[in-house]
Write a structure and sequence with these properties.
By secondary structure, this protein is mostly helical. It is built from 13 helices and no strands. Helix 3 packs antiparallel against helix 4.
C-alpha cells in the first residue's frame, strides 16, 4: 500500500503527488515507462476531446476532459522534474511571466485603445521575446505540428501583416482556379500531383481566410454532411433490397441526388 492520503476532494497538488507515485518504483509499470514521445499523441487526443466538449456546450464533459489535459501537463512536467530540468511550478512561473510581459496595458504603463491594439502589441512583444528579426522568422515559427489547414491559415495571416496579400477575396478565388487547373494538368501528366494538390488546398485556405470561415470547421462540417447523406444512400439502397456494393455508379449517383433533396 502506497503512502497516500485519501480525501473527499483533491486539488492540483494531489494530482502531482499521484503522478509521482505512479511513476516511482513500485508504482504503475505502464506510467513509469512513458516518455514525452510515447504520450505525444495522447496529449493531442485529449486536447481535441476537450474541444469536443466545448462544442457540445457540456460543462460536466468539459470538466472531465480538462482534467485529462491537465494530467498530460503534469505528466510531462514530472518527466522533466525527474531529469532535473523543471517542475510544474516552473511551468506556472514561465506562463505567469509571459502573461505579465505581454499585457503591459494591465501590468505596466502602456495605454491601448481597444482589442486591435492589444493584439498588435502582443504580436510585437512575442516577436521580440522569441528573437524573430524578420517576417520569415515569424512564418517559420508557426508550429509544424498544427493541423495542416490551421497552420496554413496562421502562416497566411502572418504574411498579410507583412503586406503580402490580395486586397480582397477575388484574388484568392482566381488563384484557387489557377491551382485547380494546374492540378488537372498534373493528374493528366501523372507528375507533381502531391505538390499541386497541396497548392490547391493552400489556396482554398486563403479563400476561407478572406470570407472569415475556419477551414477546419468547414471541412469537419462537410465531412459530417457527407456521412449523413451516405447514410441516406445506404438506407435507400437497402429499401430497394440491393447492397450498395452491387449497385452501379449511376445507380448510386441517382440515390445520392435523392438524398441531397432531403
Amino acid at each position: 500500500m502506497v503512502d497516500f492520503q485519501y480525501k473527499e476532494s483533491y486539488d492540483v497538488s494531489d494530482l502531482e503527488r499521484i503522478v509521482a507515485i505512479l511513476r516511482a518504483p513500485g508504482g504503475c509499470p505502464w506510467d513509469a515507462e512513458q516518455t514525452h514521445e510515447s504520450i505525444r499523441r495522447n496529449f493531442l487526443e485529449e486536447a481535441y476531446e476537450a474541444v469536443e466538449a466545448i462544442d457540445e456546450k457540456s460543462s460536466e464533459h468539459l470538466r472531465e476532459e480538462l482534467g485529462d489535459v491537465m494530467l498530460q501537463v503534469v505528466l510531462h512536467a514530472r518527466m522533466e522534474q525527474e531529469e532535473g530540468h523543471f517542475d510544474l511550478n516552473g511551468v506556472a512561473d514561465g506562463i505567469c511571466k509571459k502573461l505579465i510581459y505581454r499585457h503591459p496595458h494591465v501590468f505596466g504603463e502602456v495605454e491601448v485603445s481597444g482589442t486591435g491594439e492589444v493584439l498588435s502589441n502582443w504580436e510585437a512583444l512575442k516577436r521580440k521575446e522569441k528573437g524573430q528579426a524578420t517576417n520569415t522568422d515569424a512564418l517559420s515559427a508557426v508550429a509544424r505540428s498544427l493541423p495542416a489547414l490551421w497552420r496554413a491559415e496562421k502562416v497566411q495571416k502572418k504574411a498579410r501583416k507583412a503586406g503580402f496579400d490580395w486586397p480582397d477575396v477575388s484574388g484568392a478565388l482566381d488563384k484557387m482556379g489557377e491551382e485547380l487547373d494546374e492540378l488537372r494538368q498534373a493528374v493528366d501528366q501523372e507528375s507533381n500531383i502531391e505538390e499541386e494538390l497541396g497548392d490547391l488546398l493552400f489556396a482554398a485556405v486563403n479563400v476561407s481566410r478572406f470570407v472569415h470561415v475556419d477551414p477546419e470547421t468547414a471541412l469537419t462540417r462537410a465531412t459530417d454532411k457527407f456521412i449523413a447523406r451516405f447514410a441516406k444512400v445506404e438506407a435507400l439502397a437497402k429499401a430497394q433490397g440491393k447492397p450498395m456494393e452491387e449497385m452501379t455508379l449511376a445507380e448510386l449517383d441517382a440515390l445520392w441526388d435523392k438524398a441531397k433533396q432531403g
